[in-house]
Write a structure and sequence with these properties.
The structure holds two protein chains of two kinds.
Chain A lengths: L16 H36 L7 E9 L7 E3 L8 E4 L4 E8 L7 E10 L9 E7 L4 E6 L3 E13 L5 E9 L3 E2 L4 E11 L3 E10 L2 E10 L2 E2 L2 E2 L3 E7 L8 E6 L5 E6 L4 E7 L2 E8 L7 E6 L5 E6 L4 E7 L5 H6 L6 E8 L8 E4 L5 E6 L2 E6 L4 E7 L4 E6 L5 E6 L3 E8 L7 H5 L14 E2 L10 E2 L2 H32 L2 H15 L3 H17 L2 H24 L2 H4 L8 H26 L1 E3 L6 E3 L1 H8 L10 H25 L3 H9 L4 H30 L2 H6 L17 H8 L8 H34 L5
Antiparallel strand pairs in A: 1-31, 2-3, 3-4, 4-5, 6-7, 7-8, 8-9, 8-10, 11-12, 12-13, 13-16, 14-15, 17-18, 18-19, 19-20, 21-22, 22-23, 23-24, 25-26, 26-27, 27-28, 29-30, 30-31, 32-33, 34-35
Chain B lengths: L7 H8 L8 E10 L2 E11 L4 E5 L6 H8 L9 E9 L2 E2 L7 H7 E4 L10 H5 L1 H5 L5 H14 L3 H4 L12 H13 L5 E5 L7 H14 L4 E5 L3 H7 L2 E6 L2 E7 H6 L4 H7 L5
Parallel strand pairs in B: 3-8, 3-9, 6-7, 7-8
Antiparallel strand pairs in B: 1-2, 1-4, 4-5, 9-10
């Protein structure tokens, strides 16, 4: 270098290599850090999205194998829980043909070592069977005979494990006695039953000399500490006369106290047995004048799946209608009725084949060669295909992982189903859904229930609502206090006091939210519980006093005002406001005794209790100890320091030359603050509010601890809420990995992510526009 | 270097007698920031409807004194004073006097032009609006009069509703003058009004000061001695917080009594 350059720089002008290296290193280091943060935020977004995406995929159904059984004259296909020992029932002699299936992991099912074998249950005598029905849940087959009797065959599957932990499924058949459905009856055409603990209800369509009869028979058995007795016939009901048209199918309701009969003409009769009497509860036509093609229960025996002659597909469930005026007048109880809760896309014709999943509200319908798996709650088609054969019978595996369809030629078609999240769909998350047992379509969130057959409800709307509700109440409390405090501190307070106030507020911001939540739940909520009138009184009196004192002070002549230097007014104000607060607190119970009087409707006693008075006075109102007011205070407390600090900075950063100009023109401190400082600081104040909003939206622990976490949709301030973030915190520990529930929690996280992203973007755009509008010289 | 390049009308103005030769009186006035004294026992008086210039090197307390006249120093922590300042015979430190009304009487133009981020119109009428005067016709009249007085009317009359921040530096400073005189104060304080401006804009402001002294009593702080010589009737020279010399501008620049004054005006220090 030196030789090429005739006049090398003197040493003192040289830049040391270390400086250059450090400069280069730091430049790249900072670049890596900055880009890394952007990438990691993006990666989190992608990770959450990947967790969520499977929710929106439809079912993958693949035909895994076709196995020839050799049995063509069958009526029923049944299967065990593992899908390894399906059977078909030969109606002619009541024999069961089992097919041993070997299912290796990731291999096609093949016929196992036991092959295809037929077993005859030990029937209690000779009989000719004319109809049969398989109850998948109880794994029982009910047979109707040609002489008006029935019997039940229990298929008892038990897994046995050998030394190498390999599973073999054993099946044991045990047939019950024959029970008569009545006297002088012929062949049973259709039959259904329901076993309660000590009662059994059997409903059947039975031929007789006078034509097709609709029979319902109840049986009872004794239960003693030494065991259960045998079933004994109890009551017999003949419903034939009450039904017009040709009955085609009978079903027994889930409680075992009702019977549904559909006719070819398209009418459904709903009978209920109450106190030994049977009565017609409801008569309805699911498709109007059109005929009914099929009628079957969904899981839980609450919802009915109908198809019409033309392939229309609807779901009916019981609900309690609004009482009519006559019913209100007579005080008559409103009875539950069936109504359409969902309708699904049409099939090509009436369903010939139906089976429902034992895990969820999915069901299989087939009409001719067209087969379809649908989801009852959301009304979505999970899978639909026109097959190369016409299924004659079929069943969905109880784990909703397999489907078996049998064709006319005696082949059993094995399908594998990969549909982990059938209950999830866009409409399930964001639209009103009419769930079983509800009286109307609703937004509901209920991820788990005591009963496995209860459908999970995954509407995101109550959670989004709760998020905004909590945030709103927190902001209502926090924004005025924080902004006014910032304005006072930056513009009115003497700088020496400001030096104390600001760091104190910043320390407040560092309080862990779990502490705030704990305080809110266990300290504030019980205190406020009996003192809401006081709280309202204080909230009313404080601003009023402040405004009144301010006004009177302004009206005082200068000679009185000189005693209080500007910036020290708080020395008078704080004791005064404290006195007002204490007065309001003490006066609260008195106000309560005057205003919030609740008259007990039963005893006529007058009780002055706000907690009773509020729900009574505001219809639909409710009172909870841990309510949105507590959340507003505690979350407000968490948000105030953030808003205060940022807003105070923005206001203090308004250039001195602007405030000086205003003051020099004869403006008062308040005029300067309101006309110059507030507009100029508005972008910063806006940011402060938005950052506070973002904190409140994502705040978790306070909401988890200080509310009831009920996902309700109600603006009532004395109710709780459940926010998206609290929902994740509460339910993540109980959500199995990769289950629908788990993914839905991630979906909640994604919504939260998108919401804060949206809020921040809008806030930033608004801030930039405000800043351009109120930018200053220099 | 002290050359007085006054134009003909200015000379006649110089000779016009003041209606009140001791309109603003500074009486044994001392001023402290915390413990450091920046103004030492000054006593002098300024005539009405004349231009008085304060000159002196940086840190001599001339700006502080100027800011005492409308009590802008009140905003600063830890100040105190001794002695008194009177305007028209009335003490400005009278506790019964509202500082807001004082500031309405004593307008101020700052070193750096500082228009509000509002329209030209709203800048001018600010002092009227804060006084609760919102009548449109009155405001319109004030805007035109103030802008004409500030020699800005012809340049901005078509864009009164545009942001004041779109003006040039010189225009903004004249806008600030128009804003300061909108509410017709009696005294106009100018704290180095041209220090941030180019020579052309400075010339315009100086011309304006000549126009304005017919109506207002003007006190101007300047570092620029030629400017003091050009615009003022009387000049006060301060040094280290003390009033060294105070006399007719001509005298200060042509024939100062104190050697320090001569050294300063002739550019030997400062």
């Amino acid at each position: 270098m030196a030789s090429q350059n005739p006049n090398p720089d003197p040493k003192r002008f040289e830049v040391s290599k270390g400086t250059l290296r450090l400069d280069t290193f730091m430049t790249h280091f900072i670049k890596v850090g900055g880009v890394g943060i952007i990438l990691s935020v993006f990666a989190i977004f992608i990770f959450i999205t990947i967790q969520v995406l499977p929710l929106f995929q439809s079912a993958k159904v693949e035909e895994a194998a076709v196995i020839d059984t050799g049995v063509t004259d069958f009526h029923i296909v049944g299967v065990d829980e593992w899908g390894e020992l399906p059977f078909v029932v030969n109606l002619k002699d009541g024999s069961f043909t089992f097919i041993d299936i070997k299912r290796e992991h990731e291999a096609k099912p093949v016929i196992g070592p036991r092959g295809i074998f037929t077993e005859h249950p030990k029937y209690a005598g000779k009989a000719e069977f004319t109809s049969a029905l398989y109850h998948h849940k109880s794994e029982e087959v009910i047979f109707g005979t040609n002489d008006g009797r029935y019997t039940l065959v229990k298929v008892e599957y038990t897994p046995e494990f050998n030394a190498r932990s390999e599973r073999t499924i054993k099946a044991k058949l045990s047939a019950d006695k024959f029970f008569p459905l009545g006297k002088g009856l012929g062949a049973v055409q259709a039959i259904d039953y329901y076993d309660a603990d000590k009662d059994r209800l059997v409903a059947a369509l039975v031929e007789s000399d006078t034509g097709l009869q609709v029979r319902t028979t109840t049986f009872k058995r004794k239960k003693t500490p030494f065991g259960v007795g045998a079933w004994k016939p109890a009551d017999e009901y003949n419903l034939t006369d009450q039904i017009q048209g040709k009955p085609s199918k009978v079903l027994v309701t889930g409680q075992g106290n009702g019977v549904l009969i559909s006719t070819v003409e398209g009418t459904v009769y709903f009978f209920i047995i109450e106190k030994g009497e049977i009565g017609l509860r409801q008569k309805f036509q699911p498709f109007g004048e059109e005929g009914i093609g099929s009628m079957d229960w969904l899981l839980g025996n609450e919802s009915l799946v109908f198809t019409s002659d033309k392939g229309e597909n609807v779901i009916f469930a019981q609900y309690r209608p609004e009482p009519t005026e006559e019913q209100l007048a007579s005080g008559e109880e409103v009875r539950r009725q069936f109504a359409e809760i969902n309708s699904l896309p049409n099939l090509s014709g009436p369903a010939d084949l139906y089976s429902h999943s034992m895990r969820n509200r999915a069901f299989l319908l087939a009409s001719g060669p067209e087969a379809s798996i649908r989801y009852g709650t959301t009304g979505s088609i999970r899978w639909q295909k026109t097959l190369g054969f016409t299924p004659k019978a079929g069943i969905l595996g109880s784990r909703y992982e397999t489907m078996m369809l049998a064709d006319d030629a005696g082949s059993l078609h094995f399908f594998s189903i990969d549909d982990p999240h059938p209950e999830a769909s866009f409409s399930a998350f964001f639209s009103k859904i009419w769930y079983e047992g509800q009286d109307e379509p609703k937004y509901l969130y209920q991820s788990s229930a005591a009963d496995a057959s209860t459908e999970p409800k995954f509407s995101m709307v109550p959670l989004i609502f709760g998020t905004f509700k909590g945030t709103l109440y927190a902001m209502i409390f926090a924004v005025p206090i924080a902004l006014l405090a910032a304005l006072y501190t930056s513009q009115f307070l003497k700088p020496e006091y400001k030096k104390v106030v600001k760091p104190t507020m910043e320390i407040m911001a560092s309080l862990p939210s779990v502490v705030l939540g704990f305080l809110g739940a266990l300290w504030l909520a019980p205190i406020l519980d009996s003192r809401y009138p006081s709280v309202f009184l204080i909230l009313f009196l404080l601003p009023l006093t402040a405004a009144a004192v301010g006004y009177v002070w302004g009206q005082l002549p200068q000679r009185y005002r000189i005693y209080l230097k500007p910036g020290q007014e708080f020395l008078v104000f704080i004791p005064l406001l404290l006195i007002v607060t204490i007065a309001g607190w003490e006066l609260g119970p008195w106000v309560e005794s005057k205003l919030c009087v609740y008259v007990d409707p039963t005893t006529g006693q007058e009780i002055a209790d706000f907690r009773l008075w509020w729900p009574h006075t505001f219809l639909g109102g409710n009172y909870d100890q841990r309510n949105s007011m507590v959340i507003g205070f505690m979350m407000g407390f968490a948000v105030i320091p953030i808003i205060f600090t940022i807003a105070e900075d923005a206001m203090s950063n308004v250039p001195q030359f602007l405030t000086s100009a205003s003051l020099a023109l004869g403006a008062s401190r308040w005029q300067t603050a309101s006309r110059v400082v507030l507009p100029t600081a508005s972008p910063g104040m806006f940011s402060a509010m938005m950052i506070g909003f973002g904190r409140a939206v994502g705040e978790t622990m306070i909401v988890v601890m200080a509310t009831g976490n009920t996902p309700i949709m109600d603006w009532n301030i004395f109710n709780g809420m459940r926010t998206l973030s609290a929902n994740i915190a509460v339910e993540m520990p109980e959500a199995p990995k990769e289950s629908t529930h788990y993914r839905i929690l991630f979906f909640g996280a994604l919504l939260l992510f998108l919401m804060t992203f949206l809020v921040n973007t809008v806030a930033e755009v608004a801030r930039v526009r405000l800043r351009n509008r109120y930018k200053t010289v220099g | 270097m002290a050359t007085v390049t006054a134009t003909e009308p200015t000379l006649t103005e110089h000779t016009a007698p003041s209606p009140d030769p001791s309109y603003i009186q500074v009486k044994n006035f001392s001023f402290w920031y915390g413990s450091s004294q920046v103004i030492h026992d000054q006593t002098f008086s300024m005539p009405k409807q004349k231009v008085t210039a304060f000159i002196g090197p940086s840190g001599c307390g001339k700006s502080t004194l100027l800011r005492c006249f409308n009590r802008m120093n009140d905003l600063i922590d830890g100040i105190h004073h001794e002695g008194d300042i009177t305007v028209g015979g009335e003490s400005i430190f009278n506790p019964m006097l509202e500082v807001i009304s004082l500031r309405k009487r004593v307008g101020m133009v700052f070193q750096k032009y500082n228009p509000f981020p509002k329209s030209i119109y709203e800048n001018i009428v600010y002092s009227l609006r804060v006084a609760g005067r919102n009548k449109k016709s009155e405001l319109d009249e004030v805007v035109e009069r103030s802008l004409r007085n500030a020699a800005l009317w012809d340049e901005v009359k078509d864009r009164l509703q545009d942001s004041a921040l779109g003006l040039s530096g010189g225009q903004m400073q004249r806008l600030c003058i128009a804003r300061a005189i909108a509410n017709q104060p009696e005294i106009l304080l100018m704290d180095e009004p041209c220090s941030a401006l180019d020579p052309v804009a400075t010339g315009k402001i100086e011309e304006l000061i000549h126009q304005l002294k017919r109506q207002f009593t003007i006190v101007i702080v300047t570092h620029n001695m030629q400017q003091a010589a050009r615009v003022s009737d009387r000049t006060a020279f301060f040094y280290l917080g003390k009033l060294i010399e105070y006399d007719e501008t001509q005298k200060i620049f042509m024939n100062p009594e104190k050697p320090q004054t001569e050294d300063y005006v002739s550019g030997r220090f400062g």
